[in-house]
TrEMBL record:
<dbReference type="Pfam" id="PF00378">
    <property type="entry name" value="ECH_1"/>
</dbReference>
<dbReference type="InterPro" id="IPR018376">
    <property type="entry name" value="Enoyl-CoA_hyd/isom_CS"/>
</dbReference>
<protein>
    <recommendedName>
        <fullName>enoyl-CoA hydratase</fullName>
        <ecNumber>4.2.1.17</ecNumber>
    </recommendedName>
</protein>
<keyword id="KW-0443">Lipid metabolism</keyword>
<keyword id="KW-0456">Lyase</keyword>
<dbReference type="InterPro" id="IPR001753">
    <property type="entry name" value="Enoyl-CoA_hydra/iso"/>
</dbReference>
<dbReference type="GO" id="GO:0006635">
    <property type="term" value="P:fatty acid beta-oxidation"/>
</dbReference>
<dbReference type="GO" id="GO:0004300">
    <property type="term" value="F:enoyl-CoA hydratase activity"/>
</dbReference>
<dbReference type="InterPro" id="IPR014748">
    <property type="entry name" value="Enoyl-CoA_hydra_C"/>
</dbReference>
<dbReference type="InterPro" id="IPR029045">
    <property type="entry name" value="ClpP/crotonase-like_dom_sf"/>
</dbReference>
<comment type="similarity">
    <text>Belongs to the enoyl-CoA hydratase/isomerase family.</text>
</comment>
Length: 262
């Protein structure tokens, strides 16, 4: 796990996943993808976790995407064999059951941009540069970009970025709705951790069930989504968290959540 590190920020329950391959600007090699997938799978089972922040140890880049130097020597069979490994890395972030936040400074290109899109919220500082350059090198975004970007900003804007392969700066990313927070240079990690701590102060059961309902309901019919929401409401409403939350509200105090997740 040398290229992906975990930092725990207690007592908030926030977990920081640090992409730590700075010499390669966190380019996603086969081993880097394996490490990220393993970290994500492990955290998915962690019931003490309340929020996740995905950051980089490099001041120059969040992640520049696939390791094209490694791929340059691949045979077709080797590239084919790598595919499920890289897919597992992106899926492990997308499937985390708690709110997730990407903190971007510098470059977030290709698969790096897609890692950010796999998160629920994106914080960028004013050095951020984002883009999906895949079609310019004979590929298509393969880490979820063709699906997640359109869901985030709409069909036309997603087509613009995907078909032109152009890069955008932090201001444009914020205007387009890709970034949810825009902060000054060097402040993305701090701002993301502050946001995560605020989120993590809420009910662990409520957070997990709200995310579940939103994720599962977004692609179906309204009627199906409302049924998913009802199931999530029932899980939260009959939990110990709801009892503690109501008691704390009436007693004008901060809640002491009795559970860590659901």
């Amino acid at each position: 796990m040398e290229t992906v590190k975990i930092r725990r920020h207690d007592p908030s329950g926030t977990v920081e996943i640090v992409l730590d391959r700075p010499d390669a600007l966190n380019a996603v090699s086969t081993e880097h993808a394996r490490a990220l997938a393993a970290v994500g799978r492990g955290l998915a089972e962690d019931t003490t976790m309340r929020a996740v922040v995905l950051t980089s140890s490099s001041p120059k880049a969040f992640c520049v995407g696939a390791d094209l130097k490694e791929r340059a020597s691949f045979t077709d069979d080797e590239l084919r064999d790598q595919r499920p490994i890289t897919r597992a890395a992106y899926t492990s972030i997308l499937d985390l059951p708690v709110p997730t936040i990407a903190a971007i400074q510098g470059y977030a290109l290709g698969g790096g941009f897609e890692l950010a899109l796999a998160c629920d919220l994106i914080v960028v500082d004013d050095t951020a540069v984002l883009g999906l350059p895949e079609v310019s090198v004979g590929l298509v975004p393969g880490g979820g970009g063709t699906q997640l970007l359109a869901r985030r900003i709409g069909w036309g804007r997603a087509c613009d970025l995907t078909f032109t392969a152009r890069r955008i700066d932090a201001d444009e990313a914020y205007r387009m709705g890709i970034a949810d927070r825009l902060v000054m240079s060097g402040q993305a990690r701090e701002a993301a951790l502050e946001l995560a701590t605020h989120i993590a102060s809420n009910s662990p059961v409520g957070l997990r069930q709200a995310k579940r309902a939103m994720r599962l309901g977004m692609d179906g019919s309204l009627a199906a989504g409302l049924e998913i929401e009802d199931a999530a409401w029932r899980t939260a409403a009959f939990s110990a968290d709801r009892k503690e939350g109501i008691a704390a509200f009436n007693e004008k105090r901060d809640p002491n959540w009795p559970r860590t997740g659901a």
